[in-house]
């Protein structure tokens, strides 16, 4: 990491009025940021720990929240919500089969995605607008809704038009061309192979337009 993209504990303590012990607690106990990378001091005087530069801003934020009276658990929740808003690695799984969507949600979470589940069309529409995922995995044969219309609606709404939709189904009610023409990026037949799906989703969040 370039030197201008990292800071030391001393750099942070010059900006944020906390003690070294507090910095250590935020790092080790509360996991607000990662451990520093230790390197030999450039002047040959022992070892220096280097944090990514964003850690200084994180410490300023945590300090400001504590001054407002927020507890550690509330601060953790605030930081998690901010992470979820910033990340592109967000996926919404829309399926009424709990035995399918919950293991899939856990699988994506284990692979560094923020994942949510919707079990019906109403919940899917709400979460698409509030959660704003990068990708929606949509079972196009959900009972009680026309998933082709769901795809069209997502693509015609300026708040959700950029969401990439991967349609999936275990029956042949719709043709692949019909699904893709409605706005979905692709159609995958069930059963879904999790590892193959992960590769597709990783490429999508990386901005690979050929997927």
Task: Characterize the structure shown.
The protein has 211 residues and is of the alpha/beta class. It folds into two domains: 82 residues, Multidrug-efflux Transporter Regulator, Chain: A, Domain 2 (Orthogonal Bundle); 119 residues, Response regulator (Rossmann fold). 46% of the residues lie in helices and 18% in strands. The protein has nine helices and eight strands. The strands form two sheets. The protein has a five-stranded parallel β-sheet with strand order 5-4-6-7-8, with helices on both faces. It has a three-stranded antiparallel β-sheet with strand order 1-3-2. The protein is elongated, with a radius of gyration of 22 Å. It starts with 5 loop residues before the first strand and ends in a 6-residue tail after the last helix. The model has no long low-confidence stretch (mean pLDDT 87).
Strand percent estimate: 15-25%
Please identify the top-level CATH class of the largest domain. Alpha Beta
- How many distinct helices? 9
Order of helices and strands: EHHEEHHEHEHEHEHEH
**Could you report the average pLDDT, rounded to the nearest whole number?**
87
What is the annotated CATH architecture of the largest domain?
3-Layer(aba) Sandwich
CATH superfamily of the largest domain: Response regulator
Total of domains: 2
Helix content: 40-55%
Structural class: alpha/beta
Extended strand count: 8
- Intertermini distance: 31 Å
Low-confidence stretches: none
Global outline: elongated
Largest sheet: 5 strands, parallel
């Amino acid at each position: 990491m370039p030197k201008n993209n990292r800071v030391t504990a001393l750099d942070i303590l010059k900006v944020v009025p906390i003690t070294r012990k507090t910095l250590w607690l935020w790092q080790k106990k509360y996991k607000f940021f990662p451990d520093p990378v230790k390197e030999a001091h450039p002047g040959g005087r022992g070892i220096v720990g280097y944090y990514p530069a964003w850690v200084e801003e994180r410490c300023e934020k945590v300090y400001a929240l504590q001054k407002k009276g927020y507890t550690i658990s509330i601060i953790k929740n605030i930081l998690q919500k901010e992470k979820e808003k910033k990340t592109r690695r967000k996926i919404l799984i829309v399926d009424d089969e709990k035995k399918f969507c919950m293991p899939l949600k856990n699988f994506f979470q284990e692979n560094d995605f923020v994942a949510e589940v919707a079990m019906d069309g109403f919940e899917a529409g709400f979460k698409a607008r509030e959660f704003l995922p990068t990708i929606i995995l949509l079972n196009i044969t959900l009972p009680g809704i026309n998933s082709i219309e769901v795809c069209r609606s997502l693509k015609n709404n300026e708040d959700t038009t950029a969401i990439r939709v991967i349609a999936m189904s275990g029956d042949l009610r719709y043709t692949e061309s019909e699904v893709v023409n409605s706005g979905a990026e692709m159609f995958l037949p069930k059963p879904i192979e999790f590892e193959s799906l992960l590769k597709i989703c990783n490429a999508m969040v990386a901005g690979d337009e050929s997927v």
